[in-house]
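Quick one: structure tokens for this chain, please?
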Amino acid sequence: MRIALVTAGSRGDVEPILALALGLRRAGHEARVVAHGSFAALARRLGVDLRPAAAADPRGLVESDRGREAFALRDPFRAWRRFASLAEAGARAFFADALTACEGVDAVGYSGLGAFPGHAVAERLGVPYFAADLVPTGPTGEFPSAFLPQGPAWLPGYNRASHALARWLVWRAFAPLADRARSEGRPASHFPSSLALAAGARVSLVGVSPAVVPPPAAWSAWARFTGYWFLDEPAAWEPPPDLLRFLERGPPPVVVGFGSMSGRDPARTTRAVLEALARAGARGVLLSGWGGLAPGELPPSVLALDSAPHAWLFPRAAAVVHHGGAGTTAAALRAGVPSVVVPFAFDQPFWAERVRRLGAGPAPVPARGLTAARLAGAIRRAVEDPRMGLAARALGERIRAEDGVGAAVREIERALRRGGPGP
């Protein structure tokens, strides 16, 4: 089969889809990924066919003044609207490029916000579609929506209501963009509701370990929790000499990185992190990422890197301090080391709370309330509490035993051969 996978977002959004494409190719299918062209070099290194779709550079958006302001908003309604406005300029171009990139395929899969162009392309081409999500979404009372505050989960009825509200919120923010793009030169049409979209999918895959989020019983008829879709660097990757020397000089360090998150004041965040490491008596490796950290002159106990493969670095850490993105959380859990989660926005508080509930990390330290004292206390607990270490190791063993990509490929094959809902 010829399958296109459409996604939009940061590296954490794209890497699992590249892993899924590799799995489909190993199973004998032709798989291509439609994403921003900034990921083309990574795809080439992996041997994945990436078809670039024109849109605003996700890193540029995150690091822009408007992007930083969006992440700093406390109100999720305003945050989603702000990001929708940032994406508006590139919506038509993304759809046009995705339509060209998907010509000749037998099916279209979409992930996250890629649902809007992905469904529109499948509709235009008259081919079936399926969802490949990295965050569990859908009506349930077992946990709150990943995109709304986690605190009120104790309120009766909040969990189920939060899922309905989140679906409406995202649809309200992004569906008008999809309407304008998909109706270009055609009669006006309206993007389907999220429930109608899910009802038309051949299958809805959730790339999350059941050990981390147990699948709600009510979802068994339409959603498949396959396990995570990990993308590991090729075996030829070699760590830089300064990293090897640093690791050999002392005990395992605390790895700190906030991925694609870029707060309003990276320099201030970096100072708080360095002071926290010093207070906790811990060595550290800083991953500067997309501007969340701005390391300058560092003490000998701290090393700065732009990036390093999580699968290689995290198992060598005493703990990982991260932003709680779905992909980074998965990598830290698989490594079997405790996490200290510093959530910024969107689904990150959900994963932070999930880590705490699993016993694999202390209570989260929200980015808005980040202080050296709070972070140092969380680091000490993560490193020194033996129960936390045991819980993290046990969870890591369960996750490493899963084959999320293989399970997802089998579900896609089964769903597309079986037929059923679709355009």
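The chain is about 45% helix and 10% strand.
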